[in-house]
Amino acid sequence: MASSSTSVVVSNKEKENKNTKKVTLKSSDGESFEVDESVAMESQTIKHIIEDGHYSSLALSLSVKTTMASSSTSVVVSNKEKENKNTKKVTLKSSDGESFEVDESVAMESQTIKHIIEDGCANNEIPLPNVTSGILSRVIEYCKKHKEAAGESEPSVTSYTSNSTTNPLTEWDTEFVKVDQNTLFDLILAANYLDIKGLLDLTCKTVADMMKGKTPQEIRETFHIKNDYTPEEEAEVRKENQWAFE
Amino acid sequence: MLLEILYRLPCCRRAVQFKSVSKRWLSVISNPYFIRRFMDRHRHYVCKFTHVFQNTIELNVNTYIRLVSYDHNDNPSFKFDPRIGLEFLDFLPVLSLHYPVCIQASFNDLLLVCTQVPKASFFEYYICNPFTKHWLKLPPIPTDGTRTRVMIGFLCDPCICDSDSDNDREQGCITNAHYRFMVVRILCPEENTTQFQTQLQVQIFSSETNEWRNSVVSSPRKLNLNPFMPIACYAGVIACNGMLHWVCVKDKEIKGFVVFDPFNDSEQCHYIHPPIDLSLRHYVSLGVFRRRLRIFQLIYAGSFSLWELEDYSNAGTWCMKQKVYFSNMDFGDFLQRAKNIHGLDYSDERTKMMLYRDMTFLAFHPNDGDSVFLHCGNSVQLCNLRTGVLKRVYYYSSPVRSKFQLVQPSWPTPVPPLPLNAPSISN
């Protein structure tokens, strides 16, 4: 940390069109950070300055560089934001007994869970007997990521059938589904059971894409499906749908 | 779960191939509910389409057809192999018998083919999907030896299936899996074909009754219902929204349009006014674009105009969609080519007028609402009415007496239609 003392000016600006009072913190190398007053008051030092009313002209000597200032500011900001949000939590319990605590808003990405909560049937824990812990943790990861993205921008950006390459979630989604076949199918089942439209669409589309280049025989091999046709029956089906095979 | 995955496949061909994976897959993919989900997902599918040119309008042993198929970029593919006659339809067993045959109507990806066993006293009709090669034969209809001219209407009306969700019902249940159909034979009046007729003799086959019956159609307004009059005959009988439409002519002028809705009333016709700015003395062509009725009018050395019917009520509300003046049209190198070929010393204007003389309407582009296909002498041109640009698509010089546009939906129309009570599928 730099040892030179420089001035930190704390100025109070009241924005007319906002309810939250803002203050501007200025670091030693001249960069300004505007934050909610309530956020800034996480710092006892600043709190006293503001409460004493000396802020309009008082210069604080703070030996902090910009980066330090901004990081502590952002930490302060994010803590405060979390506190300001509805941080009601729910506990989801997987079939193998593991509990996961998540924000209620994240859990409500699942329509199934949403209905349970809204119906008032969720006490403290919501048991999910059809989902193992490994899958549940992934599902939660998906919901968190998509909830975050929805919160940061317009809700309409996260469209379930969006295939926009400019959508930053697309890349994350692509990585998310790079799992083994069994996991992928378990995710499909979980998404269906939990009624999470976006996840269902993503996982099913992934499997459909895997299928589209394959012949029926390759499909059987890849997905371990037993061919229950007799040779005559299979020939009959092929003949009736000859056009698709040409 | 299988259904959820499979309907997300990009094209129907693969999905149909997968019917052969296992019996369970067969039952999922064949189920009408699956088809509905598939078509709904592919709602914005750009249809492939094919033009079918036939050298006859009547039953003929020498019937010959040519096909031109278009891909997503409107590039045509076709073969000039003279042996391609009716091989397109050779899955129909009757064709191997070399009976007189004629394609008489089309709807989406279905064709209506008529044939007659020689010296026999009945006609046979087949409905077929030439892409899947599935067909069905209608009960025979006795011929009336005296009348040879008919106008044919082929109506398909998708059934709004009983659906579990209100959402589906609202969206109109996009599917071609269930439909009822009718074949309407409008018989030519006995004497003079340009006679004023307030009544028409028709023969109607309904898939709901599975039989033919005779009917007499009249109009409460005492209109001339005769579709064989020159202006009406040129435009033909067009099926749209489960109804037949043709031009109502009076004193050699267009009076309006006749609408015949046999699914609801097989004895009375309705009437719609012509668009206000339609030229009543010039020929028109009728067609369909995305289930809406359209009129195209080409006025020699004047303009090309396009109207669309927005509403059937109150004797019809039309909207002019496009109009382009002849002088503003860009013929591109078609003009230059014409000059080169004919060795013309004419001005551009004069050459244009010559080319114009040979132009006839072929079809509305199924995917582009602004464009129409025109037959121009020896070539087929695509005309964008918004930009006025004409683009040559291909040369075709054999005689065309009748033409059909087959449009392939995202899932092939089943023939026969799937029964409404299909067993429910388990995922």
Automatic annotation (TrEMBL), chain A:
* Limits of the SKP1 component dimerisation domain: 197-244
Q: Which InterPro entries match?
A: SKP1, SKP1-like, SKP1-like_dim_sf, SKP1/BTB/POZ_sf, Skp1_comp_dimer, Skp1_comp_POZ
* Keyword Nucleus tagged: yes
In residue numbers, the region (Disordered) covers: 1-36
Q: Which domain of life is it from?
A: Eukaryota
- Does the keyword field hold Nucleus? yes
> Which UniProt keywords are present, listed alphabetically?
Nucleus, Ubl conjugation pathway
Q: Which GO terms describe its cellular component?
A: nucleus
Q: Which SMART domains match?
A: Skp1
| Domain SKP1 component POZ residues, every copy | 21-52, 88-147
Segments crossing the lipid bilayer: none
List the subcellular locations. Nucleus
Pathway-wise, it operates in:
Protein modification; protein ubiquitination
- One family from Pfam that matches here is Skp1_POZ
Q: Which GO terms describe its biological process?
A: jasmonic acid mediated signaling pathway; ubiquitin-dependent protein catabolic process
**Family assignment from sequence similarity:** Belongs to the SKP1 family.
Q: What does this protein do?
A: Involved in ubiquitination and subsequent proteasomal degradation of target proteins. Together with CUL1, RBX1 and a F-box protein, it forms a SCF E3 ubiquitin ligase complex. The functional specificity of this complex depends on the type of F-box protein. In the SCF complex, it serves as an adapter that links the F-box protein to CUL1.
- UniProt-recorded name of the protein: Skp1-like protein 4
Q: Which gene encodes it?
A: ASK4_4
UniProtKB/TrEMBL annotation, chain B:
The UniProt entry's coiled-coil ranges are none
- What Pfam families does the database record attribute to this sequence? b-prop_At3g26010-like
According to the entry, every stretch annotated as the F-box protein At3g26010-like beta-propeller domain falls at 101-324
Query: Organism's domain of life?
Result: Eukaryota
Q: What is this protein called?
A: F-box protein At3g26010-like beta-propeller domain-containing protein
